[in-house]
Amino acid sequence: MHEYLISGLAVASELDLPGAIPSCAHNKRPDVTIRRGTVPAILESADASGPNWEMAGEKFLLRVPRLARFLIAQGQEIVVELEADAKERDATGFVLGTSFGILLHQRGALVLHGAAVASDGRAIAICGMSGTGKSTLAAALCRKGCSFAADDICVIGLNGQGEPIVQSDGRQLKLWHEAITELNLRERRGEAVRDTFQKYYIQPFDRIAEPPKLSAIYVLRDSHQAMQAGIESLALADAMRILEYQYYRPRVRAKMATKSEMLLQGAAVFGHAKVFLLNRPRGFEHMEETVAALRKHWGALGR
Amino acid sequence: MTAPAGIIWLASFPRSGNTWFRILLANLAAGDSGPADINKLGNAIASDRDEFEAVTLLDSGLMSGDDIDRLRPRVYERIAAEATEQHWIKAHDAYTLTPEGEPMFGRYAARAAVYLVRDPRDVAISLAYHFGTTIDDAIEFINRPDGTLADWRTGLPVQLRQKLHGWSGHVTSWLDQTHVPVHTLRYEELVADPVAGFSAALRFAEKPATEAEIERAVRNADFTELQRQEGEMGFAEGYVLRTAPFFRSGRAGGWRDKLTAEQIARIEEINAPVMQRLGYELSLIPRSAAANDQRIAPVRAESVGSPDPSASAV
Questions:
Q1: By a Cβ cutoff of 8 Å, what residues of chain B touch chain A?
Q2: ipTM
Q3: How many domains is chain A built from?
Q4: What is the pTM of this model?
Q5: pLDDT digits (tens, 9 = 90+) for B36-56
Q6: Are residues A37 and A90 in the same domain?
Q7: Torsion of CA A84, A85, A88, A92, to 10 degrees
Q8: Is the domain of A208 the same as that of A195?
Q9: Which residues of chain B lie closer than 8 angstroms to A129, CB-CB?
Q10: Nearest residue of B to residue A90 by CA position?
């Protein structure tokens, strides 16, 4: 068995999960088990479905054509069945990604689709659409001394005082070749995320020790002539509306959580953390100025 | 009376009037509150990575272009099944089949397609400005049967890979497929008589609009208005490396004084049959006659542009 600590959960896995950082420190019963096994082709009497997934009660079936089927159950278990000729190694990205994200939704966690970094015990989350450069910006911040907290799946929990905190995802940051080159991180480049893909795991940066408090969520956007680069504050109503889209796989989340659960989670975030739009010009040549502007803005936020 | 719900593909090779047509649609919707803001067009595009991930829940960065294409029919069927109104969705992909032989756009997903086509000699010039490349690179690109958009593999483009099949391959892929009824609209006709061209496309899509509404939309989407807005506010969808405004000239036939004889010959040599089929008159300059006009061999451009051609409208 491989043991990991992912997003605050003790995980025992039959599958080696490259990119997840082994953690044997916990002597408790695992919160989540991951194993190979038989998975049905389809879930009957589904409450909700998509072209390659069905949800029925506490079970969720995910299909990646020609690769594997994943059964995610009760927020406690992920069962993986490979399709013919598929390699286990290729399926692991979908275990740590979508499958684990769905499992967290089953547990009622508040999961952002984004990266998070911390400094002085305070964290920020960086959200945005796929391909906008969330992980790259997180890596650039870590190069400037921030600690790494999460990439892609960012779980917001609550501490004893009811304040939002960021759980470490217990994984390595993933970056594309281009970002690795531009950020001069070749020495940290680890294995490819998937064979023949030029996306790689990055050897760990400093990681957060204790879950830091969340002070802000920045939603990344490309700026252009029509929109000045800079950081925009949002009125609460706009912040709530925009945050709805920053949850991990928001349409599924909306089907899995009740309205009042979502409202309570939102209230916990907005009670302590603000949401900002981070409009920045695209391109690595602007990275330094974006990092500097972001650090300055973040530093000026009250504790 | 409302338009029947479902998907209408607004398909074209890049730089063939697709964005202008979308602006016409936006102005039709805006009615008397127009002109519509060119920076708020809405950006429904078939190759939208975020939409793919939202529907399939999968991390597309972990999937090959072919595996993504295998699921795209399911995504469009889903959008079509859930549609409560008419969705015009832009597409630059050629009409291709998945490795298993299924139409990538889904066999029954769309109600219809409007296919915009433009003289490839003008497309070459427009592409060169748009991507900030040479005209020779642009010609190489439109002549490539395996040309693509957003196919770089060292980073994650905002859009999914789009196979183009070159200008001729693109045109024939859409016009010769038999799954989706297609209305062909030549960019040159749309420029010459926007009201007639736009009206015919709307009629084909069964989208009701009065003549007065169409005329107003055309007035509000006039090229000078687009240039005015771009000049004042910029155009968010413009590609970052472009060397001229997105709404540059909008003319038809500019190639006559912008391309060399050799360049014209290179385009016509590859694309003559399809150009003739679409009514684009060939200048028939034999390549040998253009030989004294040789210039530096074009750089091979597998998927033009970096860092991210997919982030922009083309």
A1: 39, 49-50, 53-64, 67, 70-71, 74-75, 77-78, 153-159, 233-236, 238, 240, 307-308, 311
A2: 0.90
A3: 2
A4: 0.89
A5: 988 887 768 999 998 999 999
A6: yes
A7: -80
A8: yes
A9: 49-50, 158
A10: B62
